[in-house]
Structure formats: structure tokens, C-alpha cells
Amino acid sequence: MWLFNELHAQKTITPQDINWEVFFNQHDLVWNKITPDYYAGAIMGNGLLGNSIYKEGDNYKFHIGRVDVTEGRMPADKSQYRNLYDGARLPIGYFLIKPVGTVLSENMRLNLWDATTTGAITTDKGKISFKSYVHSTRDIIVLETDTEGKETVFQWDWNASKAISPRYTFGNKDYPQEYIDNPNPDVKIYTDGEYKLSVQNLKGGKTYVVAWQEIKKGSSRRITITITHENTEELAISKAKETIDSATKEASSSLENSHKQWWHAYYPASFASFGNTKIESFYWIQQYKLGCLTRPDKYIIDLQGPWAMEKTPWPAIWMNLNVQLTYSPLFTANRTEMSETLWKSLNDNLEHLSENVSVEEWRKDAIVMGRSTSYHLYSRLDINNKPVYEVGNLTWILYYYYQYCMYLYDENELLKKFYPLLKKSIAYYEHIKEKREDGKYHLPETASPEYKTAKDCNYDLALLQWGLKTLLDINEAYKLNDQKASVWEDFKGNLVNYPTDSEKGFMIGEDVNLTGSHRHYSHLMMIYPLYLINWDQPENRALISKSIAHWQGMPSYLQGYSFTGSSSMYSMMGDGERAVIQLQKLIDKYIQPNTLYKETGPVIETPLAGAASLQDLYLQVWNGKIRIFPAVPTDWPQASFINFRTEGAFLVSASREGGKTVFIQIKSEKGGLCRIQTAMNTDNLSIYKIGGGKVHFSVIDKSTGLLEIKTKEGDIVQIIDKTLKTIFPKPVKHLKSEQNTFGIN
User: Fold this and answer.
1) Rounded to an integer, what distance in angstroms lies between the CA atom of residue 204 and that of residue 74?
2) What pairing do the DSSP bridges indicate for beta strands 59-66 and 93-98?
3) N or C of the chain: less Cβ packing under 10 Å?
4) Cβ–Cβ contacts within 10 Å for residue 714, how many?
5) Which pLDDT tens digit goes with each residue over 218-277?
6) Which has the closest alpha carbon to 411: 643, 652, 669?
7) Which domains can be identified in the chain, with CATH numbers?
8) Has residue 9 got a pLDDT over 70?
9) How confident is the model at residue 10 (pLDDT cuts 50, 70, 90)?
10) How far is CA 260 from CA 72, 114, 116, 163, 305, in A?
């Protein structure tokens, strides 16, 4: 069947159609009061360096960081390695603006479009106006000030942080005595010609240097800062001077323009506009933060990002939920390249992933990941330490690696890199499986993250089911004839069912029910994000509903990501109202003024997971279908998105008006069959290809508007309802009074 509407205007919809500067103006973070709060500061970063501006007493703090500055120690006996100390992320320090007079008023604005913070401090002695940014592609932090009155001589002071694990400073008592007995030497601060240097040598063998230079001209100052981290002090100092010299030789306007250029290219990878102003602001601030947190050639995102604190119990990378949620919004947002550091790290550190297996004879074919680690990914999984014996962590990370491969439809990456890793991850389960008298394969006691241990733990059973299914699907699709296929078929076909309770739904595992509040949805992984048990299965709907209700019905220990996970589950059920209510709980109760999030200390993942849950309102991909607007609440009559990426390397755009979908565009990067659930009346559809030509499609299910469209590489197909006015994706209009809700205003 085919149809082509020659009369329809031939216009390809792209994110460049949006007036981004105007759109972002309503979402900038605005402060009319600057407070002494890390979680209320203006945050900036470039994937390596970071700067956060907030107050300390009567002064103004420019708290800087570099993500790869870690202890870097490794004991001769690796079994004695303690990641939260030997591999701890280290704080670096902060600068202070010390005004001459008493502050009368202050303000600040983080311009998202330009990734630049401006502000003004008015005192009884004059005024300090400032502009600051972390350059998008160069390792420098820039501060420019212009002053009035006696504030021309304000002080600019450096305060170096002690090079010690923030977990120890926080007060945790689990430190190795060897670590405390061998402190890093004190920092050296001195002036070397035009440069000021803060030099910290580390017991791990590296040196980090903070260097800065001030250029004064009349009432103005331009301060250029860098942080280097090298194998020797000499190299770190030399590189710092070279970096500053390169920046200061360039005109201020030129440097700033090159900084903005990257951001102006970054944002239009995709577009989305939501029916609630604060939610829309929240979404786009998360996209901004992702640009601050990482780049394709930088480092895995840890729990602090480039904004390290002096006191936190979490100075590491966490692998039992945090990394997974942190990267979850990248793929739909068409920012897949921003995840590449994680996949490269897995492949580059394969030896450590093998060493993480505590049983030596299993290392020949198995890999695994413990709870927390540093950039080397060494995190031994101790089979005898049951409370943290979280076998599924690596497999869960590989679920997102699979998304990376499939959303780009990169067969080379899938077969040569992802597939071997997944085989080794599932091989660990093959080593621990047990066949019982019932003829079924069972799992021994393992840990369900954040709760208890159990045999046949649902966390592991769900990830194992997904891993076996994925291996078999790849083997069949690409005719690999893998010798292990029969083993996987047997394992999957005879794996024990998920333990369930008739009244409470999914259990933690065999004989272990969920009896108390549980912030993690580790026992519900088969529902989300894996969709192995889903709403397309009528026989499972009651089980899904009671499982979520039981989990959410004990709220005392729920945390922010409890609401992102449940929101996405409700979206899978098509319940947009409850999905948005959960996100509003997250934003109102847990999200801080600058949209950071804390559980004792800063943890980066939850707001980013909130962005992924917002994407689930507009587009979902599971069970072989692309679902358009599957869970938009009824009080959002308008909705739009452009270039959301899906499996099969399709870029999808759509708009909704008056509560009905009126436009869909599919751009096929690689060609292939696109199964898309439109929720449109198939009797009224006009389906055409930009540039002309036949569109080959079939109606699979009229009740849901499910279509199968055959595409060729480069095809752009559009779908409209001939009985409705076609409205292309555009921003939802928001009231002025509802804008700029983040910051302190």
C-alpha cells in the first residue's frame, strides 16, 4: 500500500527551525539573592573542568574542579584496594571575591544558550559586575569583572582544599589506616612571574596544578584559570602555563565566541517542549548539565561531575544504579556520542573487569562489576560479601550500551565490541547457576541493590533474561552460529520464573518479600527499564499494577529516583497523569535550586533520570514498536518534539494539538522497517516522502494506529491527518510569570 500527497508543502522539520535564544531565555536560572549553598550556585563545566558560583559568608565563592583528579593509589596487594580512599575523587579548592564594602544587593543569571554566568554585586563602596564561563573546548575557566568606585581593588584569593578523600572529611570511619598514615604532602602556593600556581603532588604519583593569571586594565580584570593533572610536577606546571598563554593571547570577544559556538551546535541535536513551564525548564537544564558533565573524549561521569565537594561520602563512580541513570537520557535526546567515553572505558579496561571476578578460574571467560569504582573500573565483586554481591551491575550498564549500538544502528560496534562484553557478563551467571530437582536453573544468594539478599533475586533474573535474549537475538539476526547459542537457549528456556507474591507482586527473590520501604526499583527491572514484562501483555497488567502500588505504597525511604522510575513505569502503562505527578513530586521535594540533587552528598544521576522519564511521555521504544505520545497528560493539549532518536537509527519528530497527534516525521539514517504506533486514525492518514516517491507501508493495528513503513537510507517520511490542521512542532507558549523558576528568585 502507498500514498503520496503531491499538494502538501514539502518542508523537512529540523531543530534549527527553533529560535533557540528566545526559547532558552525563559529557562535561564536567575538569582536575586546569592546564598552560601553548593546546591543553589551557578554551575558550569566542559566535561573536564567545572566552576560553581555561590556565597561563603560575605564573600563570593568560585568553586573549581577537575573530574580526573583522584588519589590514584593502588596497593601492591590489589585485594587491599579501597576505592573510596585509594581511588577517591579529590576536591581542588576555590577562589573568593572579597568585596571592599558591605553588600547591599546582588544578582546572577546563568544563560543556558551561551553557557555563561553574569552577575553584579553592589556594595556601599561601589559595584562589581562579573561574567564567567568554563570554555567549551579549551581547559580554561574565565572570569571577567568590571568595577565601580572603591570595588576596583576587591580581593581575589585562592583557597586550596586538602588533598584527602572527602569520605574521610565527611566523617566516615571505614578508612584504611594505611591511607591516613600516608597523607599527601601540603600544597605549594607561589607566584612565578605572571602566573600564580598551586601545586599538589599526590602519593599516587601524579601532580595537579591550579594556575591563574590576572590582566588588569583600568577598572576591569580578566582572570584566566586552568587545572592540569600530569605524571610529573614539571609537566603539570609547563602545561598550565601553555594553556593560559594560549588563551590570554586571544581577544576576549574571540575567546567567548568560540566558547559559545560549541554550545550553539550542541543544543539543536533535538528539541522538546512540554505543557508545564517548570518541567520544561527542568528538562533543558538537564540537557545543559550533560554538556557540562562529559564529552566523547573525556571521562565517565561520577557522582559529583566537575563540581567536587570537600565533604561527601560518595567520591567515586557508582555502578548499581547511578551510572545507568546518568546516561539514560542521552539516546532519545540524540546525544549518543556523549556516552562514548563509558563504552570506550569498558573495552579499554577489560583486564580489570576480568580481575573483578573473585574466583580466579572464572576469569578466563567472565567479567563483572562491583558497586563503586574509579576510572580504571577495578571494583572486585567479593562472592563472600553478600550485602554488596550485586552480580547484575555490569549487565545493566550493557543494556545502555546496547541502546547506543541500536539507536545508531552501528553493526560494527554491536558485533565487535558490545557482543563480546555481553557474552562475558552473562558467562558469570553461567558459573553461578544451579540446577535443582525441579529441572529449572536457579541463582544462588545475590544482592538486590539497596535492600536485601535472596536466592533467585529478581534484579539478577531480569538482567539475565534480557542478556540471554539479546545474545540469542544478535546471534540469529547476524547468523553468527555462536557455539554457545545452544547453552543460552537451554539456560533461558529453563530459567526459573520471577518470584512473585499473589497480593504484593514481584518479590525481592525466593522467599524474600518487599516488606519495607525501598528506594531502588531493583526488584522491578523486568518492568522498567527492560520492558520484559510490559503493558502489551494483558495477562501481566494486574501483576505490574500491584507491584508498583506495593512498592510506592511504603514511602518512608523513597528517594528522588524512586519517582523517576515509577514515572516511567506509569508512562509505559499509558498513564500520563500519574507519570507527571511523580515527576512533580521529584521536582518539588528533591530538586535543588540549581537542579542538583543530594542524598547526604551530591549524586548526579536522579535529575538526569528525570529527563529520561520526561522523554518517555513523548516517545517510547520497546517490544519492537516506536510509540508516539504514549503518555501525554490530558491537561497538556500541545506537545512537540524534533529529532528524538530511536532504535534503527530513526530520527522522529511529532506535534500534538488539541490533544491529538497532527504531525509525525521519520528520518531514516540507515534504512529498514520502521514500526511506529501513531495513535492516529489510519483512515484519515496522508503519508508521503519529502522529495517525492512512493511510501510503502502497511496498517498493522487500526486501533492503535500501528504502521509498518519500509524506508531506504536518507528517506524522510511525514504523516498527517487529512481532517486536521497540520501544525509543525514548535514551543509551547508559557506565561511570563511561570518562567525562570530555577535559581533563587
Assistant:
1) 7
2) antiparallel
3) N
4) 12
5) 999 999 999 999 999 999 999 999 999 999 999 999 999 999 999 999 999 999 999 999
6) 669
7) 32-269 (2.70.98.50)
8) no
9) confident
10) 34, 5, 9, 33, 21
Between CA 592 and CA 221 the distance in angstroms is 32
Written as nine digits, the cell of 689 is 516522502
Place of cell 528520518: 667
Q: How far apart are the first and last CA of the chain?
A: 57
Q: Which amino acid is at 95?
A: F
Alpha helix ranges (H) inside 312-457: 322-327, 340-348, 350-355, 393-408, 411-413, 419-432
- CA nearest neighbour of 288 among 28, 66, 51: 28
Chain segment 503-554, per-residue pLDDT in tens: 999 999 999 999 999 999 999 999 999 999 999 999 999 999 999 999 999 9
Rounded to 5 degrees, φ, ψ at 283 are -60, -45
What is the DSSP secondary structure assignment for residue 544, as one 8-state letter? H
- Comparing CA positions, the residue from 419, 444, 441, 422 lying closest to residue 432 is 444
Strand order, beta sheet including 103-111:
188-192, 195-201, 207-217, 220-230, 141-149, 126-134, 116-123, 103-111, 29-31, 743-744
Q: What integer is the mean pLDDT of 53-82?
A: 96
Global pTM reads 0.97
Closest CA to 134 of 41, 242, 227, 51: 51
DSSP string, 455-482: TT-HHHHHHHHHHHHHHHHHHHHTT---
What are the DSSP E strand ranges found in 161-299? 188-192, 195-201, 207-217, 220-230, 271-273
Computed over every residue of the chain, the mean pLDDT equals 97
Helix (H) or strand (E) holding 563: helix 560-572
Mention every residue, 6+ apart, whose C-beta is less than 8 A from residue 546: 503, 504, 505
The answer, yes or no, to whether residue 571 has pLDDT greater than 90, is yes
CB 389 within 8 A of CB 446: yes
77 burial level (CB within 10 Å; 0-12, 13-18, 19+): exposed
CB within 8 Å of 672: residues ≥ 6 apart: 409, 648, 649, 711
**Considering only CA atoms, which of 542, 533, 555, 462 is closest in space to residue 501?**
542
Instruction: Give the Cα separation of 519 and 516 in Å (integer).
Output: 10
Tally: H helices and E strands in the chain: 19, 36
